[in-house]
């Protein structure tokens, strides 16, 4: 089981701290979603001009850069130019760091309706494909926003190549937001799932599906044992990324608590248990 974390969970950490803590806690990689207040990490010297030194530091720590999590949004005409620049810059970073994946969002379906949104996304993906192929990179669309339900994701993927476009299964969202079973998600999307996000939560009492509280792993009700079983049975050997969204929810516990607890929980889960249920 290859464990990584997104840097959303440690917005106050420096690059030096990220590398040191990742190795100390027992992670295998780091997924970059911002660093020291800058969301597009390719703008920072550590990835722009000093990337060789940064790469050497990761190698010395025995860590990989598992993914670059971008803000690319397929259904957003206003972001078309930004999408193109982000893709080119992150593809360049993937080549520099030996990284295979760039995360993207499907985006919001507004008044244009889902069919028009799918057509818009298809146009964006067609323009992106040559860049992805040249860099040998795969764009991963996350089960998120208006593309959480597996049927909607399937429609979005139609006509794309599995070599260049895949799925990032955020195991929390389909279960929590639309009540989709892990078996159903895998049945529909398994052949395209290349990466996973993990986090736990509990629904707010009396609230709808969109109202919940994030919890430490094992302190919510997301069926991680079932999800892990589905992945094991089907030969999944990709990354298990902890997405502790402290950047967006500063009230969450500090990464010094959440990150090592995640590693303990997941290693126990990997060894056939139910995970480390409590801190």
Automatic annotation (TrEMBL):
InterPro entries: IolE/XylAMocC-like (IPR050312), Xyl_isomerase-like_sf (IPR036237), Xyl_isomerase-like_TIM-brl (IPR013022). Keywords: Isomerase. It holds the Pfam family AP_endonuc_2. The keyword Nucleus does not apply. Residues 19-268 form the Xylose isomerase-like TIM barrel domain. GO terms for molecular function: isomerase activity. PANTHER family: HYDROXYPYRUVATE ISOMERASE. This is Sugar phosphate isomerase/epimerase.
């Amino acid at each position: 089981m290859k464990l990584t974390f997104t840097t959303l969970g440690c917005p106050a950490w420096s690059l030096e701290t990220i590398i040191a803590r990742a190795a100390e806690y027992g992670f295998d990689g780091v997924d970059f979603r911002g660093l020291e207040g800058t969301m597009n990490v390719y703008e920072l010297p550590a990835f722009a001009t000093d990337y060789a030194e940064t790469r050497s530091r990761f190698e010395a720590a025995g860590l990989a850069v598992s993914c670059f999590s971008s803000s690319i949004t397929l259904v957003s005409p206003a972001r078309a130019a930004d999408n193109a620049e982000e893709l080119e810059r992150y593809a360049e970073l993937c080549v520099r760091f030996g990284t295979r994946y760039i995360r993207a969002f499907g985006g919001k379906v507004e008044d244009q309706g889902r069919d028009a949104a799918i057509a818009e996304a298809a146009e964006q993906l067609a323009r992106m494909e040559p860049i992805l192929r040249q860099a040998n990179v795969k764009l991963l669309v996350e089960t998120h926003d208006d593309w959480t339900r597996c049927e909607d994701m399937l429609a979005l993927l139609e006509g794309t190549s599995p070599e260049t476009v895949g799925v990032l299964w955020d195991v929390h969202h389909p279960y929590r937001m639309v009540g989709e079973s892990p078996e159903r998600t895998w049945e529909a999307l398994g052949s395209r799932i290349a990466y996973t996000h993990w986090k736990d939560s509990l629904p707010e009492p009396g609230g709808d599906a969109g109202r919940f509280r994030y919890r430490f792993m094992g302190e919510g009700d997301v069926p991680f044992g079932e999800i892990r079983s589905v992945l094991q049975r089907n030969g999944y050997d990709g990354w298990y990324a902890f997405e502790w969204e402290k950047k967006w929810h500063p009230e969450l516990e500090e990464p010094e608590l959440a990150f090592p607890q995640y590693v303990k929980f997941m290693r126990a889960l990997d060894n056939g248990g139910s995970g480390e249920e409590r801190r």
